[in-house]
Amino acid sequence: MRINTQGFRIGETAPPRPQRTFLLEGTKDLDTVIPAESRFTEGAGPVYPTLGRRLFPALDALEITMDQLGKHPTPEELDRSNVRRLIRAMLPVLEAYSDCYPKKAYKKAAGELGTIVSAVGQFKDVAVLETTVGTLYPDGVIPPRIAKRLEKTHNQEAELFRDAYKHFRKEGLETVLDTFSQPHRLEEGSPARIETEDRRLLGNRALELLDKAENRGLVHQDPEEFHGGRKALRRVLNAVGASADILAWPKEDVEAMTRLVDGLGVAQDSFIAYEWLEKEGLHAEATKMKAEYDARHQAEIQEAQRFIDSGAFGRLRAAAELA
Predict the structure, then answer these.
(1) Statement: the pTM of the whole predicted model exceeds 0.70
(2) Percent of the chain with pLDDT over 90
C-alpha cells in the first residue's frame, strides 16, 4: 500500500531562486514538514504516534524530493534539497521502531537508505572540497592546474554517484516507501499506554546513542577517531530532533551540541581537503591546509571538552531516562 500526500505546510524557507527549488530547501529539520491529514486510514489497529508524526511525512517528503531532483542532480542541488538531512532525520526513528517491521525487509530497506545517503554525501563533498581548497587563495580563484585536478575528481565521483542514484530512483526508493509505510499494527490498547511506550522507545534509542558517543569520545588527536566522534554525536543530535516534540531535552545543551557538530564538520572539511591535496602531490598547498586543519582541530577539541565538562551528557541522559 502506498500513501499519497494531499499537501504539506512548510516552515521558513529560503527566498525564491531563479533555479529550481525543492520541498525542503532552507529547512533545518522535520518540524517544518507537517502532514495535512492522518495516515493509514485502512486496516485495523493503531501505529505508534511518532511514526505518524515523523516517519510517514518524511517518506512522502523523500519521494517528492527525489522527483524534484530528477535524474541528474548537481552537488549544489543535492545540498539545497536537504535530502541527506532528511534521511538522517529518519534513521533514528526507524532504529527506534525497527521491531515494527519484518527483519529481512527492514534490513534491506535500511540498507538502501544507508547506501544513498553515503553516495549523496560523497558527491556533495566534491563541492565542499572545491570551496575549501579555494580558501587557500586570497581571491578564492583556484589556479588552473589545480582546478583541472578538481574537475577530474568531480567526474570520477559523479560517475560513482550516478550509478548509486540511478539504482535508488529505480528500485531503492520503492523498497523504502513500501516497507516503511507499512509497520505492524499495535494490539488494541489505551492511548495513554501507547503514548508511554512511544516515548520509551525513543528515549531508549537516544540513551543507546548517548552511550556510544560518550564511549567513542570527542577529543581524539587522531583525525579518523576525531571524525568518528563527530558522527556519533551527530546521531545523538538526530535522535534528539526526532523526539523533540515529546521529550523535554535541555535546550541549552541541544544548542551547544548543534554548534559543536557544525564546528567539527568544518574541521573535517579541512582534513578532507588536506588529504586530497596530499594525494594529488600538491605538497605546498597540502601543508597550508594541514596547518588550517590543525588549528581548527585543536579549537574544536577545546569546545568538545567544554561540552563534556559542562555535564551536558548527564543532563541529556536524564532527559532520555524520563521518557
Answers:
(1) yes
(2) 72
Q: Looking at residue 32, what is its pLDDT?
A: 53
Instruction: Name the residue ranges covered by the structural domains of the chain.
Output: 46-188, 190-323
DSSP at 55: I
Q: What is the pLDDT of residues 169-212, one digit of tens each?
A: 999 999 999 999 999 988 777 888 999 999 999 999 999 999 99
Q: Which of 313, 204, 224 is nearest to 271 (CA)?
A: 224
Q: At what angle do helices 223-242 and 83-96 cross, to 10 degrees?
A: 70
The set of residues, in sequence order, having a beta carbon less than 8 Å from that of 109 and lying 6+ positions away, is: 101, 175, 176, 179, 180
- Which cell numbers in the block locate residue 65? 524530493
At residue 106, the pLDDT reads 97
Q: In this predicted model, what pLDDT tens digit does every residue of 18-64 receive, in sequence order?
A: 578 898 888 765 555 545 454 544 445 688 989 988 898 889 889 99
34 vs 158: CA distance, rounded Å: 33
Contacts 24+ apart (CB under 8 A), 160-167: 160/119, 160/122, 160/123, 161/119, 161/120, 161/122, 161/123, 162/72, 164/115, 164/116, 164/118, 164/119, 165/73, 165/116, 165/119, 165/120, 166/71
